[in-house]
Every structure is written in structure tokens, then in C-alpha cells.
From TrEMBL:
It comes from the Bacteria. The lineage of its organism: Bacteria, Bacillati, Actinomycetota, Actinomycetes, Kitasatosporales. Keywords: 3Fe-4S, Electron transport, Iron, Iron-sulfur, Metal-binding, Transport. SUPFAM superfamilies: 4Fe-4S ferredoxins (SSF54862). Ferredoxins are iron-sulfur proteins that transfer electrons in a wide variety of metabolic reactions. Its cofactor is [3Fe-4S] cluster. InterPro entries: 3Fe4S_ferredoxin, 4Fe4S_Fe-S-bd, Fe-S_cluster_ET. One of its GO terms (molecular function) is iron ion binding. Pfam families: Fer4_15 (PF13459). Residues 1-29 form the 4Fe-4S ferredoxin-type domain. It comes from Streptomyces dysideae. This is Ferredoxin.
Length: 66
């Protein structure tokens, strides 16, 4: 699984961090970023829900080949 956050779209609503706090957090400016070690989202069933919860669609979750 690969997670991409479009920093230009992110408005810092924090819905991702609420839905999947083990994967997402907010940086010092309040914008979404990945937790250390959260890059692949493996093991957290809420990653896709966090992407859906983003009000501006700044998070993309895709399957990785392998």
C-alpha cells in the first residue's frame, strides 16, 4: 500500500489523523503528514477511511506491486 498526501491541497482539517492516528499526524503548520513508520499504512484498516474523510481529497491510497 502506498499513501500520498498532496501538500498543495491539504487544508489541515485533521480528519485523517482522527481516523488513523497510527499512520497520520499533523506537522507544525497543522498540515497532514505521515507518522514515522506509517509510510505504507500496512496493518491499519482505517487508512482508506482516512483518505475518504479528507474534505479536499488530498490523500491518495494505492496498492503497490509486489
Amino acid at each position: 500500500m502506498h499513501i500520498d498526501i498532496d501538500k498543495d491541497l491539504c487544508i489541515g482539517a485533521g480528519q485523517c489523523a482522527l481516523a488513523a492516528p497510527d499512520v497520520f499526524t499533523q506537522d507544525d503548520d497543522g498540515f497532514s503528514t505521515l507518522q514515522p513508520g506509517g509510510e505504507d499504512g500496512t496493518g491499519d484498516p482505517m487508512v482508506r477511511e482516512a483518505a475518504r474523510a479528507c474534505p479536499v481529497g488530498a490523500i491518495t491510497v494505492s496498492e503497490t506491486a509486489g
